[in-house]
Amino acid sequence: ETGVTQSPTHLIKTRGQQVTLRCSSQSGHNTVSWYQQALGQGPQFIFQYYREEENGRGNFPPRFSGLQFPNYSSELNVNALELDDSALYLCASSQDGGAGQPQHFGDGTRLSIL
Amino acid sequence: ELKVEQNPLFLSMQEGKNYTIYCNYSTTSDRLYWYRQDPGKSLESLFVLLSNGAVKQEGRLMASLDTKARLSTLHITAAVHDLSATYFCAAGPAGTYKYIFGTGTRLKVLA
User: Fold this and answer.
1) Short-list A83, A52, A42, CA closest to B9
2) How many CB pairs under 8 A join A and B?
3) Which string of DSSP letters, residue by residue, matches A63-81?
4) CA distance A63 to A46
5) Cβ within 8 Å, pair B42-A107
6) How far is B36 from chain A (nearest CA, A)?
7) In this predicted model, what pLDDT tens digit does every residue of A54-79 receive, in sequence order?
8) Least confident span in A21-30, A93-102, B18-27
């Protein structure tokens, strides 16, 4: 069973740039959720994709956008990067919308904005 | 809007002792999760609680859910050093696919 994999592991960008983070879901999972975790904080829910459709979104501006592909892998895109976007970005996969199912997390992408 | 609060935020305990971490949530939730996170690592799923009175146990950890009180607890029995980590609870607002995490409880078990 292949777990959740994220790429890249680390990334350094400057303010105003754009970034794309990638996530491959665990085998058999059709739901992917993205989180932002600032240092010393709990993860903040960005959005969830289920069968290629966004079905839940947290309090993040539209410059945070996503995509899920037919193989259920996913991308998180962030435009016009700000210093506060520096964080660990976590992807989690689950089955069938995730409600009532455990989420399996990847190791994350550490994004630093200079 | 659902808010999730954990206490204590920091917990230092001796090996062999028992303790409880509390997770309160502000509005109706239809699911409650507990996760463990080691420093510099990702999150590991511990428990999923879906109904009032649900109790789940794994090793020295036991989680319970009281939906009427909007409270979940994570009880640690006879703590060992390997349990040192940050523990998060997360709740999902009923009828949505959102997840709201607490701020975490940083547990340190002293030998």
Assistant:
1) A42
2) 60
3) TEEEEE-TTS-EEEEE-S-
4) 11
5) yes
6) 11
7) 988 999 999 999 999 999 999 999 99
8) A93-102
Judged by a CB distance cut-off of 8 A, whether residue B43 touches chain A is yes
Report d(CA A23, CA A9) in Å as an integer. Answer: 11
Residue B28 has which token pair? Answer: 């109706």
CA dist B4 and B45 (Å) reads: 17
Tell me how crowded residue B1 is: count the other CB atoms within 10 A of its CB: 8
Residue in B with minimal Cα distance to A47: B98
Give A50's contacts in chain B (Cβ within 8 Å): 97
What is the DSSP pairing of strand B10-14 with strand B105-110?
A: parallel
Read off the pLDDT of residues A34-44 as tens digits, 9 standing for 90 and up. 999 999 899 99
Q: Do A42 and B102 touch (CB under 8 A)?
A: yes
A42:B50 CB<8 A: no
Rounded to 5 degrees, what angle do the CA atoms A50, A54, A43 make?
A: 90
Min CA distance, A106 vs chain B (Å)? 6
pLDDT one digit per residue (tens) for chain B, 111 residues: 899 999 999 999 999 999 999 999 998 888 899 999 998 889 999 999 998 889 999 999 999 999 999 999 999 999 999 999 999 999 988 878 888 999 999 999 998
C-alpha to C-alpha distance for A46 and A54, rounded to whole angstroms: 11
In this prediction, residues A81-108 reach a mean pLDDT of 90
B61-66 and A31-37 beta bridge pairing: unpaired
